[in-house]
Amino acid sequence: MYPDVSIVPLNGKTPRIHESAFIAPGCRIIGDVEIGPDVSIWYNCVLRGDVNFIRIGARTNIQDGSVIHVDSPAPTKPDGFPTIIGEDVLVGHLAMVHGCVIEDRGFVGLGAIVMSDAHIESDGMLAAGAMLTGGKRVLSRQLWGGRPAKYMRDLDDAAIADMQRGVQHYVRNGQAHKAAVLGTTEG
């Protein structure tokens, strides 16, 4: 359906992509991956659900060049580390999201890294370039930054509203790109 997109079944699992989602050229989506309604996966992203699963909720966007992966079972975590990304999440360009949880309305900044067993709660934000190490948890309405990431401050209502405007922008922009890529007048 999409030009220059690889959808690769692996280990008996085929990626499931909602018909309203936008998958940009250059993307590679492998294995046990589920992409929800109005999601946008931007140019040259890799989503590899090979040793565990990836779930991406409605209206989330994964921006250009990002990598979403999972982690294998371990003695302390027999189920391993899937990557679960909620609804209305913003994931900035060139982010690395690996075996973690990002709840609804979470935010991962440009070039940030979220490592296995890390967690970003609803309305939590990881700043651009930050690295959230395993076992760390960004609480709701907190901003964390740095390498390794540490708590910086609480987010005010204006910051939360800006993130939600960003989500709506990416839904609209994704549909415009989808129409252009597919050569249609509708998204």
UniProtKB/TrEMBL annotation:
Single GO molecular function: transferase activity
Gene3D superfamilies registered for this protein in UniProt: Hexapeptide repeat proteins (2.160.10.10)
Keywords linked to the UniProt accession: Transferase
Keyword Repeat attached: no
Keyword Transferase: yes
Name of the protein in its database record: Transferase
Organism: Novosphingobium subterraneum
